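explain this.
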Amino acid sequence: MKKLSLLVFSLIAGALTLQSCEDLDDNAVPVSDFVWKGLNAYYLWQADVPELADDRFANQEQLNRFLEAYNTPEQLFQSLLYRPDEIDRFSVIFPDFTVLESLLQGVSKSNGMEFGLRYTSASGSSIFGYVRYIMPNSDAASKDIARGDIFYGVNGTPLTDLNYSSLLSADTYTLNMASYTDGVLVPNGREVTLTRAQYAENPVHTVTTVTRGSHNIGYLLYNGFYSNYDNQLNAAFDQLKTAGVTDLVLDLRYNGGGSVRTATYLASMITGQFNGQLFAKEQWNAKLQAIYENQNPGALQNLFTNQISNSAAINSLNLNKVYILTTVSTASASELIINCLKPYIDVVQIGDTTTGKNVGSVTLYDSRDFSANGRNGSHRYAMQPIVIKVVNKDNFGEYSEGISPDASNLLEEDYSNLGVLGDPAEPLFARAVALITGTGRQAAPIQGIHHKPFRDSKNMRRFGNEMYIENMPEGYMNIVKDLR
């Protein structure tokens, strides 16, 4: 073991090892041992879970007896989460890390229809679905279905908050369509059959500009912070920059989140004048926070930058104001953009209150340092536990109830008039254009009939709404490797 100061050793020994003189990995319970030790080391709420306490087990044998009481790694993992019905609704474990890695980059089985689900009435369990957008080159793109279409049933069965998952998770299903007028759904006899296949979504969905007087307004519909598409995101900003946009409307209404690094890139593309300054700070559990602050405090900082990971120069707009469109499905890294840009520029939020996910995760593999290097070849389990809370320059990150627009800009989508995404007549975009041009500052937003939100196609998928870091902060892996 490398020589470490007594202070640092006392911090990390408790964080990452059991109190024992024996080799703690001897005769370890396969997979389950990795689950417990990974959560003991990294889990954001480790101190709040008694079974994860550093002194919970005196030796490996005691830990083994505890682990053997659980039938599956999934059962163990779930038992170790902190108040999973209220606080930690996001940590996940996967039996196949290749599936997890794909999901992190927007790759999953999909029929190409992204939808939202709402309650039909204020009371009762009946729900309906509405099509948000259709992904290009998908099965849905070849069918008679489009944004704004309404469905009330699947395979002839009306949707409820109890049966929706089984009906809408099948690889092939038939939607029963309805007309929607003044909040009333009327079956119209139309049926659309959709089939899922593996699909990689490019989150850069729509890029366009609208000219209104002296304002050249850029519009970007961005649906996921997937780092594999950082080049495409940068190219979108090159298009906007070349067009000479004076104002930007960033549409995050269906964006469930993704990479913190990509969020930092996006913030740098919107601005450009804050290169090298602090965009966001990571807060880990108390043990790890102490290690990082002692060893490498700079590793906890996400800084505005002028280049993406392949060293390509970022196409920055140097704006002092941005208009961001949101719904209840706007989550994680999308909320990070709103919260962490606010100390620097004017952020005008239009739409509905966001999800309220201010914490993030990292992928843990069964290896000596929990990285993908040297992972256990006998299985493919990997965990994606919540490990960080992210705050802005002013140390603010308390928005677990969501981030809300000002009352004058609180505007729900109208299911009888969803409009065309990217069209300046679409209600949310139209509101932004009115504010930019000064033609609608005093106008009350037009509201449709309220339907209580239920779920959407992204948060129905495991790991659908997420914020994550690509890698552990620098300077920590060697310590873990030496101690584990």
Confidence is low (pLDDT under 50) at residues 1-23. The first strand starts at residue 92 and ends at 94.
